[in-house]
Specification:
Strand content: over 45%
Strand order of the largest sheet: 1-3-4-6-5
Order of helices and strands: EEEEHEEE
Number of helices: 1
Number of domains: 1
CATH architecture: Beta Barrel
Radius of gyration: 15 Å
Length: 128
């Protein structure tokens, strides 16, 4: 059985507290909210990514489509906020519940790469 590869932005399992929670997806930015600030003054940007692809499942090719809410914090929030709607992106991060009351999953961005043209463009990660 072939082992799934881990996106490069995902920490190694021994660096995570309770287990693997790493998610990577490509799609287009379909929604961006207003840039806001946490009570501590940290920038926060929410949005939504729309994904469409063809995937094999049980040997059968199927169409897959979804929309997922995303959130970026700090410098990544400013980068996400400056993006154009419809921009193709590759996002890596972890999935968490929206809040204690809403268990809706939200993708928290660790790395965002803007996929413009033939050569990939700007990328923001966790280096800072």
């Amino acid at each position: 059985m072939k082992k799934a590869s881990r996106p490069s932005s995902c920490p190694q399992p021994d660096l995570q507290e309770q287990g693997l929670n790493c998610f990577q997806i490509e799609g287009v930015l379909s929604e961006l909210g207003a840039l806001r600030y946490s009570p501590g003054g940290v920038p926060v940007q929410v949005g939504r990514i729309e994904h469409g692809s063809k995937q094999f499942e049980a040997g059968v090719l199927r169409d897959v489509g979804l929309e997922m809410p995303v959130v970026a914090v700090g410098d990544k929030a400013r980068m996400l906020g400056a993006a154009r709607l419809g921009s193709p992106v590759r996002i890596s991060g972890f999935v968490a519940a929206r809040s204690l009351r809403s268990r809706t999953p939200v993708l928290h961005i660790d790395t965002i790469e803007f996929l413009e043209g033939i050569h990939h463009g700007i990328q923001a990660g966790n280096e800072a």
